[in-house]
Amino acid sequence: MGKRRYLAYAIRRLAQFALVVFIGVNLAYVITHATPIDPVEQSISAVTYYGNTAPAAIEQMRSSLRELYGLSGSPVEQYLVFWKRILRADFGPSLSAFPTPVSTLVTRALPWTVGLLTVSTIVAWGLGTLLGGLAGYDRTNRGLKLMGVVAMGLHPIPYYILALLLLIVFGFLWPVLPISGGSAMNLPQTLSVDFVLSVLLHAILPALSLILIGVGSWFLGMRALVSNVVTEDYVVYAELAGVQPWRILSSYVMRNALVPQVTGLAISLGGIFNGAVITEKVFGYPGLGSLLVDAVYAGDYGLVLGVTTVSILGVSVAVLAIDLLYPLLDPRVKVR
Amino acid sequence: MSRTRALLLVACVLVPQLLVLAGSGHAQGIPQNIPRRELLILENPEGTIKNAGWFNIWAINAGSQSNGLQQVALDTLWYIDPESGLDGVWDNSLAADKPQYNADFTEMTAKLRQGIFWSDGVEFTADDVVATVTTQIKNPAMRFSAVLASNVASVTAPDPTTVVFKLKKPNSRFHANFTVRWGAVWILPKHVFEKVEDPAKFDFNKPVSLSAYVLSSYDPDGKWYIWQLRDDWQRSSLGRFGKPGPKYLAYVDPGPPDKRVIAQLNHELDVVHDIAPEGMFALAKQSKATRAWFKGFPYGHPDPTLPAVIFNTQNELFKNPDVRWALALLIDIKAVSMAAYRGAATISAIGVPPTGTHPATYHQPMEAWLREFELDTGKRKIKPYDPTVGKQIADMLRPSMGEQIPSDPADIARAFGMGWWKADPQGAQELLEKAGFAKRGGAWTTPDGKPFTVRVMVEGDLRPVMTRAGTMIVQQWKQAGIDARIDVAQGTLPTRRAAGDFDSFIGWSVETFGGHQDLSYFLDSWHSQFVAAPGKVQPLRNWQRWSSPALDGIIEQIRTVGFDDPRSIELGKDYVKLAVKEMPTIPLMAYNVFTAMDQTYWTGFPTSDNPYANPVPNWGNSRYMFVKLKPAG
């Protein structure tokens, strides 16, 4: 592959990336602003329990809040202000947690989500891929066969059912693990041993629920891929040539079958920035998913846009990275 | 040793260690480094607080109120308890006496206590009250700005213990703004806020406390807040009642109802704010340490609010009282009670919640009038009131609940309510026909020939009990031939309700003090002067947008009568009679809050046997509970 051809491809791909992000953010802007929830009315509703107020005074409060929240001005003016802010990586203040900047809320939630999902995604991927590869290669192993049955059984279970089961088992019947939060109460969030241990302990149940479902999915995918690869001529030839089975598995089978799995992993890692909405809600985990749900209910445009933009960027960057790296790593991929 | 065996050996050593660590209490929801015998753990029903470090309650919508801030850190002039109170329902808190009005109620004077100090050592004075009012009037985006700007012409402090409010118009209930029912206008520290450039953007972190506790620590992710008893707790208004029992209070987000049940069964949540009836039943059955408001069925604490079918009376279909009455007669309240609360509801036929002192003040005295009340269906006169409905519900539950169901009529009335309207499909049919509706092929049509469609707006899973009530009512109306539908508002509720974008809504527009006879807290906002034009946003509690010259007359008379004047009860009864005749909302029941209290570590919680305070822990009044709590064992 020529350097010039690759450079042209990369530039084209970067332009596509910018376009996708632009369209995605715009869509998010339009959708959030089309919601019937009005954050100003939500706020006013919060104070209507206090005494009797003349409609004129309420109207004054309404216009003050519109001004304060940056919702005054025509739709076009608001849209232009939005893009000015986006280009400065500033999503403005959260409306439901005014005046805290959206970026502060997102930055606070991000490490929890990234930490939990990165580890559980990689662990699920690693275990599922390894075991799926072995199961696809050695169809006679009883343990791996059983694992296939377990994976088939786990895969279709709705996530929240498994999460609730884990909660009941480890939170009530055998209460050894924390069922809520990211760390123990009244423990300063510093890099102390106590805090780190507490974070790990609190992550066990949410991570386990993600891993159990994830492993099944990766396992089944990898087993199917390996099942195809083992029938390829070069694998049969290697077997006939007396190459060691472990070497056939690692160098001939797994490496070739891994390519789609790696793509899937990259996209999954990009998707981390969506947050794990159900996980975080069920386990009360302080991440982006919980933040997003609360923001939607509150009609907090700025916060919804902040989280969705991070998510759009995460997925788009992951896909961009795959597209840019593949032609360099895989000789079968050609750019035109 | 093979590699596998070595790994197994390592696992056998490490896994038990991890489990020991997990099971040691390090793992579960107990704050670290605080002795459990000094700590009370309560639910903050606001959940996880996004803006955890925000304590400026005077700014709108910016942080948590029920994280202990309004219960144990802030204070105001007066409190009214929805139950009997520690020393009567009325408590002069920062005030030294009751509010004093001039003859025409255009001026209110508040005398203040001496010897009350902010937690930073500054003495509380009248200047703090004046600053509370003026700061908010100057900043229209602050929480109490609109109500204060509407009412206050001027506020002055002639001396450090006297505040004089000159009002823009006569208002015999102005003090209600500074009287805690659930919350109130909290007093802000002048010495802190006078140094702040923009009070609406000031986080007030760390908060300076005026009550018995100060902030000890909080979770930046908004899951928990811990408050510590002030060393100088005697210098707070609560100090008059003795030393609060718990040295520490943790207000936490325990998660959804199932997790609240688990947490209390594990003795990690002493006070559950509210759970579904089924959760309460499970706790009552499985935990010997759990106590609710009622010792047995129906368990829940009846809030001084009145869930009802609230009609949008600006909708043409619901302008006619005959139509509203017809819909009332198509409801079987027993089925609604079972659907919503599994029978654990306290029903009310009149527009006053059957809570606190109200049954004695309104429900019982009006019983005779209700029995004689007649409706003209156009074809005949009927007496729709059935005084035995509460008893019928008790009888219906007795086979399954056994001895938990009281047999004494007074206890039945207290737990399940008194009478309600008989389900009367024939009466309903006659009323609809009188209003010009017609039944064709089993389906009702409106006077202009269209299908009679009623959307019943509910909050969805945000308030499941009311959603279940609404679903049952829809079913009953459908069976009668009305095209009734559930309309789930979920997060859009505040916007839609305020805009009048609903036919009917299951919720409440009646909120009372509970422990006090006065109904003006909600009633004054029903005056037609506050009713918005169709399509415009309706402020305050008159969601039904009901305006009536007769009601205006009653409200205007109440405004000229003192808060404690017995005449206000008579005017309250006039409202009840008018609301029965007009039926702008169909009253259903009290909003029962299933507050569960675990007595493993603390005893002395308020209950129906000892109703000294509202136990629901997000109410400002719940602070009185802390001075009665004692360590168990």
What spatial form of chain B do the alpha-carbon principal axes imply? globular
Number of DSSP-assigned strands of chain B: 29
Helix and strand succession of chain A? HHHHHHHHHHHHH
Largest protein-protein interface = A-B, 77 and 82 residues
Q: Give the rounded overall mean pLDDT of chain A.
A: 84
The second-level CATH architecture of the domain at 102-329 in chain A is Orthogonal Bundle
Number of helices of chain A: 13
Helix percentage of chain B:
25-40%
What is the CA-atom radius of gyration of chain B, in angstroms?
26 Å
Structural class of chain A: mainly alpha
Question: How helical, in percent, are the residues of chain A?
Answer: over 70%
- Counting DSSP E segments of at least 2 residues, the number of strands of chain A comes to 0
Q: Please list the strands of the largest sheet of chain B in the order they lie side by side.
A: 23-22-24-15-25
Which strand-content bin applies to the residues of chain B? 15-25%
State the distance separating the first and last CA atoms of chain B.
54 Å
CATH superfamily label of the domain at 102-329 in chain A = MetI-like
Mean pLDDT of chain B: 92
Give the terminus-to-terminus CA distance of chain A.
Answer: 9 Å
Describe this structure in words.
Chain A is mostly helical and 336 residues long. Chain A has a domain at 102-329: MetI-like (MetI-like fold, Orthogonal Bundle). Chain A has 13 helices and no strands. The longest helix of chain A has 37 residues, at 193-229. The model of chain A has no long low-confidence stretch (mean pLDDT 84). Chain B is globular, with a radius of gyration of 26 Å. Chain B is 30% helix and 17% strand. Mean pLDDT of chain B is 92; it is low at 16-27. The longest helix of chain B is centred in the first third of the chain and has 24 residues, at 3-26. In chain B, the strands form ten sheets. A five-stranded mixed beta sheet of chain B has the order 23-22-24-15-25, with helices on one face. A four-stranded mixed beta sheet of chain B has the order 1-11-10-9, with no helix packed on it. In chain B, α9 (333-341) runs antiparallel to α15 (464-479). Chain B has 633 residues and is an alpha+beta fold. The interface between A and B is large, with 77 and 82 residues.
